[in-house]
Amino acid sequence: MEKELIINSTKNEVRIALLEDGKLVELHNQEKNTHFSVGDIFLGQVKRLMPSLNAAFVEIGHEKMLFTLYRFKS
Fold first, then answer.
1. pTM exceeds cut of 0.70
2. Whole-angstrom Cα distance, residue 70 to residue 57?
3. How many domains does the structure of the chain reveal?
4. Is residue 38 part of a domain?
5. How high is the pLDDT of residue 59?
6. What residues make up the domain containing 65?
7. In a domain, 57, yes or no
8. Sign of CA dihedral 15, 34, 10, 60
9. Do 49 and 22 share a structural domain?
10. Cα(48)–Cα(59) distance, rounded to whole angstroms?
11. What are phi and psi for residue 60, nearest 5 degrees?
């Protein structure tokens, strides 16, 4: 089974479509806002690691970078 995720992001909304074998399976449409909740998941790019704090600064497309703690399992 071939799966494809299509994301269309504009200034006012984000549309996400999931296709399986070329057929639409799920469609999500969400208006953009700046209200964030605990548990939200963001796609971002790590800009700076701070190993002494086990933390990173991550660019998520907002005016300020996200500061997050991380932990590696060995």
1. no
2. 11
3. 2
4. no
5. 86
6. 43-74
7. yes
8. negative
9. no
10. 9
11. -120, 10
CB 41 within 8 A of CB 58: no
Q: Residue 24: its pLDDT value, please?
A: 93
Q: Which residues of the chain have pLDDT under 50?
A: none
Neighbours of 44 (CB within 10 A): 15
Residues 50 and 26 in one domain: no
Residue 36 has a pLDDT of: 67
Distance (Å, whole) CA 19 – CA 68: 32
Tell me whether residue 50 is in a domain: yes
Please enumerate in sequence order all residues whose Cβ is within 8 A of that of 18, keeping only pairs 6 or more positions apart, or say none: 3, 4, 5, 6, 24, 25, 26, 27
Quote the strand ranges of the chain, DSSP E.
Answer: 3-9, 13-20, 23-31, 45-50, 55-59, 66-69
Do 72 and 52 share a structural domain? yes
Please tell me whether residues 54 and 74 are part of one structural domain: yes
- Residue 37 domain flag: no
